[in-house]
Amino acid sequence: MQNVSTQTRATNVKGKRKISRTRLKEIGTGVFFMAPFLLIAGIFIFYPILYSLQISFQNFSYLNPSAAEWVGLENYKKLLQDTTFLTAIWNTVKLLIIVLPIQTIISLVLANILNSKIKGKSFFRIVFYLPYITSPIAVGAVMVYLFNQDGLVTRFFTLFGLENVAWYTDGDYAFYLIVLIIIWTQIGFYTVIYLSGLQSIPEDLYEAARIDGASRLQQFLHITVPLLKPTTFLVLFMGGLATLQIFEQPYVVSTTGGALPGSPGDSTLTMVMYLYTQAFKYFEMGYASAAAFIIFVMIFSLTVLQYLFFERKNKG
Amino acid sequence: MNTKRILFYLVLGLTAFVMLLPFIWTLYASFVKQDLNVDTFSFDLAQYGIDNFVYIITQSHIADWYKNSVFVTGVITICNLLFNSMAGYALARVRLPGKNIMFFFTLGIMMVPVQILLIPIFVMMAKMGWINTYFALIVPFMVNPFGVFLMRQFFVGFPSELEEAAKMDGLSRIAIFFRIALPLAKPALIAQAIFIFVWNWNSFPFPSILATEPDMFTLPVGIYQITNTAYTSSITKSMAGVVLMTIPTLIFFMVFQKHFMKSSINTGVKG
């Protein structure tokens, strides 16, 4: 017994030394593989976040960074009293409230139709998806002209009693132009996500329901909708993130013809547009950084909400 | 049942029409010679021509923008494929101390909205004197946490027997990665390439602040200039620019269309 254990110990020591050499090699390999990512992400993502936090407490001009003045919470205080910023938040929230339900319902309906026995499915899928991958800058520019005075779509809408005006110059219309553009851009993507959710529902559930005499509508309400709950949440969550960060389309629409971002009269100003304008038009970098952090907190809260939802769902 | 089928086709057809209309109109407008005629349709062929394209190609820097966009997006995509895959492989397969921390670090920065990075990256680039250089347009975007995440998920499910066999044959870990793991990761690499390409090809906020000279613009920044009066306030000429800009995205999409659908579903799973 004694003998055996000494023997194993001896090989152990020998083996250990050998393992630690291979182990060292393994660690070296790991470091080699991780190094480019850690280095670049560290310098261009991680450090900038901390830097941005620092700038948000300063009166910072990029023309003269060394003259940056520490002003504490001043930027944040000023922001929360800045009616333009509050308008930008309100516009963004309004977009969220209007866009999310509409695009979710449309995507759900389209996915359901595509999931039935229909010919040319892949054609429709491709066509629906197209706007999602098109440059938002190009989309914004094209929409401005389609919704111009006497533009193709504007003229169509006059049939329903809407005015023949350039939508982007009219305070009442400009906001809804943004709404339409966002929905047009996104529904194809969410339709594809819904479609994959639908295809994961086992067919025999519907068969059982049919045997029990459930109508198509009942099947939809009692099988499809509840089983798609995770997908719906995902669609709402991703749509929420995209809307909270919306920038390019309203920027292009509002600056048509050289107008100020967010015009007419701040009706299309969104949170990120405000940040961008403050930073790169007025060079109020500290102020804009504070705005960035407020946006970050809003987005982070949404992420936490989603996390909590999924946790509860997993437990329940 | 039959009326329902007809209704379904009607809804799909109508939606498809709404989705395609802006594309069709843009293409149409880009061939109309006179701005005044853009909102009317005419059978008079003399009204149409390629003048707008000629104007954009000769009068703007669009050749530079193409070159810049192709070069910048190309280098970014290649670097991302390499670096993200290396990191994803290490996180999935290599026994490394602090691996979990690094994984959470990666997940964490995935949640950061990019807008927060605009100002600090601009200031850093200005300090380094990189504004209006390719370095500014490329270096900060050479890695992407989502790409790392995607590759890690792929390599976690990678069969270890292959690695064992290669080790028996005396291959080093690095050789195993480049000669066995990476070539077998083709589906994941294609999914990743699609995302990185489209994101960066369409990217506007960063290039718009990192390049201020017209010959350093990327396509989105250039087209924004065209549509916003810098070169022309002509609708038809702007639309010619939009067409030229959109063609590569459309070709790319058509070629990889199947993978697009698959990878957007993968994004969905990301949560």
Query: What does the overall shape of chain A look like?
Result: globular
Which structural category fits the helices and strands of chain A?
Answer: mainly alpha
In whole angstroms, the N-to-C terminal distance of chain A is 54 Å
Content-based structural category of chain B: mainly alpha
User: What is the H/E string of chain B?
Assistant: HHHHHHHHHHHHHH
CATH class categorisation of the domain at 64-233 in chain B: Mainly Alpha
Element-level helix/strand string of chain A = HEEHHHHHHHHHHHH
Bin the helical content of chain B: over 70%
Assigned CATH superfamily of the domain at 64-233 in chain B: MetI-like
Treating each run of at least 4 consecutive H or I residues as one helix, how many helices of chain A? 13
What integer value in Å does the Rg of chain A equal?
Answer: 27 Å
The assembly state of the depicted protein chains is: heterodimer
Distance between the termini of chain B: 38 Å
Biggest contact: A-B, 97 and 93 residues
| Radius of gyration of chain B from CA coordinates | 23 Å
Helix content of chain A: over 70%
Beta percentage of chain A is under 5%
Strand content of chain B: under 5%
Low-pLDDT segments of chain B: none
Q: Count the strands of chain B?
A: 0
Walk across the major sheet of chain A and give the strand order.
1-2
Organism (chain A): Pontibacillus yanchengensis
Protein name (chain A): ABC transporter permease subunit
Keywords (chain B): Cell membrane, Membrane, Transmembrane, Transmembrane helix, Transport
InterPro entries (chain B): MetI-like (IPR000515), MetI-like_sf (IPR035906)
Overview in brief:
The complex is a heterodimer of chains A (316) and B (271). With 316 residues, chain A is an all-alpha fold.
Question: Could you explain how this protein is built, in words?
Answer:
The complex is a heterodimer of chains A (316) and B (271). Chain A is mainly alpha-helical and 316 residues long. Chain A contains 13 helices and two strands, in the order αββαααααααααααα. In chain A, strands 1-2 form a two-stranded antiparallel ribbon. The radius of gyration of chain A is 27 Å and the shape is globular. The two termini of chain A are 54 Å apart. The model of chain A is unreliable at 1-11 (pLDDT under 50). Chain B has a domain at 64-233: MetI-like fold. Helices cover 75% and strands 0% of the residues of chain B. Chain B has 14 helices and no strands. The chains are: A mainly alpha (316), B mainly alpha (271). The interface between A and B is large, with 97 and 93 residues. Chain B: One of its GO terms (cellular component) is plasma membrane. Chain B: Its main location: membrane. Chain B: It is found in: Cell membrane.
